[in-house]
Amino acid sequence: MRSKNKFSEWLNQRSPVQLIIIFYIIAVTVSCLLLAMPVAHKDGVDLTFMEVLFTSVSAVSVTGLSVVSIVDSFNQLGIVLLAVVLQFGGVGVMTLGTFIWLVVGKKIGLKERRLIMADQNQYSFNGIVKLMKGVFKLILWIELVGFLILGTYYLTYFSSWKEAYFHGFFASISATTNGGFDITGQSLTPFKDDYFVQIIHIALIIFGSIGFPVLVEVKDYLFASQEERKFMRFSLFTKVTSITYLGLLIFGFIIMIVLEWNHFYADKSWHEMIFYSLFQSTTSRSGGLATFDMSLLTEQTQLVTSVLMFIGASPSSVGGGIRTTTFALVIIFILTFARGKSKVSVFKREIFEEDLYKAVVVVLMAVGLCITAIVLLTIFEDSSLIAIIFEVCSAFGTTGLSMGVTAELTNISKVILMVLMFIGRIGILTLLFSFNDVTKKGEFHYPKEKIIIG
Amino acid sequence: MRSKNKFSEWLNQRSPVQLIIIFYIIAVTVSCLLLAMPVAHKDGVDLTFMEVLFTSVSAVSVTGLSVVSIVDSFNQLGIVLLAVVLQFGGVGVMTLGTFIWLVVGKKIGLKERRLIMADQNQYSFNGIVKLMKGVFKLILWIELVGFLILGTYYLTYFSSWKEAYFHGFFASISATTNGGFDITGQSLTPFKDDYFVQIIHIALIIFGSIGFPVLVEVKDYLFASQEERKFMRFSLFTKVTSITYLGLLIFGFIIMIVLEWNHFYADKSWHEMIFYSLFQSTTSRSGGLATFDMSLLTEQTQLVTSVLMFIGASPSSVGGGIRTTTFALVIIFILTFARGKSKVSVFKREIFEEDLYKAVVVVLMAVGLCITAIVLLTIFEDSSLIAIIFEVCSAFGTTGLSMGVTAELTNISKVILMVLMFIGRIGILTLLFSFNDVTKKGEFHYPKEKIIIG
Ligand SMILES: [K+]
Ligand SMILES: [K+]
């Protein structure tokens, strides 16, 4: 704590919630100003305030739901600005959010902070800033590689190299930030038979949504010497996140094959089935890009996809929803309870009671929130119930997959979805803390037990 | 514990879960045998095994969903037998269930038992049996009064007094046990303008579903002298249950008026609106009788009704669902967490952590269970999603309200609904305990804190 400067003191005086909300309002305002500029629009396009606002909220929260067609509304400048907003919203919020947890969140005593800091040996303010810079750089590198690969590959699709690399540029940012926007006008469906494009997109989406601590730890591991590796161990956070993330990917993959065997896959080849399922499972974490029309799926797949989007991506990532860790903790909690044990452990490490409480509250509140939103949307929209459920879960999970409801929403429903995108992105827990002054007074604590089993 | 006899020792050797499952299997088997008898059927009616089984499970769990028309399938004898099964399933399971909690459940250290026994001063086995007998008698009295009032009143509707009192007999049992079956062929719609009939039904449904400890305590209070009343206080269970029950009633009443103002109520008078809403709110607790066709409601009301049915009735009642107390504890839990407190109290009394854990697990598992059932039914049925959601919540809440899906289900969906009715009736917690041997070894305990605030 030696090198605290004025900025960090100012930060310390704001609560994390204040900071995140300030950041959001600034980000959305700036995004609105940028995207409202007529010079960013195609000729003859006149966007309403609501359209610009919705696009901005969707972009800052890297959701990808859109009430206008991006490619029909924005010119090249507009698309570049949108990419900047996505980068800002995705990586910026991720970095800032984590930064806030690390610096200011110490008052709350968050498990994530404890784990990360212990494992990264980053106790000082400078160390944290360095860590954040490292993450930011890492993501820029990922995006650059994605841009080069996709841009070069797109030379086979587009007549000019400018167009190819422009598409590569936007695709790489949209995939890595899990922005989910597209400038093809039909998401990734033009590449439904191009498995190379899909694999690159899958990789970028996963890099963005698996959580930055995982990225950092894996990077550190890969760049370490044989000798150093002996002393390295992955944090509990990384283990739980990665396994849950992978588990959800596999589940999403298998369930889609099972549910669509006689329907969507009835006339498809085995490799089409594998890639459609793989891409769909990945994109429903948080990506939002699609290789086919969601309304072609059976209602049961749409429902399961809704649940998967509701769960969302890892914390400290570019994704939303209740988060993979929350889901994992709740499952662990239920299993522990069902087995009649009162102490919860995983990977031979303790789980703090407060983390369980948090996870459970997040899920319960998220369920209540989404049900409320669904009921409200059935009042204001004529769409089918499944389409509404799908859209609500997509907004809360900041996924951006759509069954086409968003394009023709009433204004009040747009506001509801914007609120969901906002809450989904900042997380229920942040919202919860905004209702009390716990982060300032530090009153929030439950009894802790250290348990080492095995 | 002085007067334990052999029967109680035998009971002690069974786990509560074993007992309840044994009871269920016996009850459903006996019910199947009774209702399968051709002598109980109308001429020319030939019921399949699946139809008899579904009717039996629905009757034993006092749900009221039916794949056959009761009045078209069963003759007078069959209807009397059905009433007996309802009585057995409703009051029998309630009494037995509570009995088991009280006698065998002491190993689990259940809050309910503690509260009831402390407040009723019923510590001995004989005392408990006496209490159970009292409850059973109380319900018989309620049913008798209901029968006399309804039967006599029905003289204005039916040409013969036999018919009038027969209808009164069945209606009283179906309402009090929250059985939800009808012999009019169209539930209570013939009485949609008869507010007297509706009020009697509302009273009987509430008596059955508000929870027997409430009944007993209120009865004790009413029959006590002025002097005795000074020393009486209602248990925490009664307070929490009654207030939640009442709160849900009021919420259901208001929300229906709000959501149907321009739809179902557009052409109705103010008193029609009040009575339709009042009856619908009451019946969605667990009753299952209806004064109008559910498909006339807007999708939003159908959704909200589904949620209300999912919550269900009070524990230790004839109802199902997650139960009012569970709902209340979860709300209290979330509010406490949001306010940044770690200790939970209500009415200046402590809430045990284990009760919070239980409540949370019940809700999470119930949500998971119902979503799974909904996905499965969308696979096997062609019905609309809202109709499936409605039917699933109705089965889990053992409510029995229907949008007409049940009548034409595939066999696999019938099995799914039967499982839901079974779990909804015995309660998620009982199901949970069946996965571990906790009730035998008594390993299940969390740290407890006594908190007296105010
Ligand atoms: K997205
Ligand atoms: K019922």
> How many runs of DSSP E, i.e. beta strands of chain A?
2
Largest sheet of chain A: 2 strands, antiparallel
The dominant shape of chain A is globular
Strand content of chain A: under 5%
* Radius of gyration of chain A using CA atoms only: 22 Å
User: What is the number of independent domains of chain A?
Assistant: 1
- Helix count of chain A equals 20
Chain pair with largest interface? A-B, 46 and 45 residues
- The helix content of chain A, as a percent range, equals 55-70%
State the distance separating the first and last CA atoms of chain A. 36 Å
Category from helices, strands and their pairing of chain A: mainly alpha
Subcellular location (chains A, B): Cell membrane
InterPro entries (chains A, B): Cat_transpt
Protein name (chains A, B): Ktr system potassium transporter KtrD
Membrane topology (chains A, B): Multi-pass membrane protein
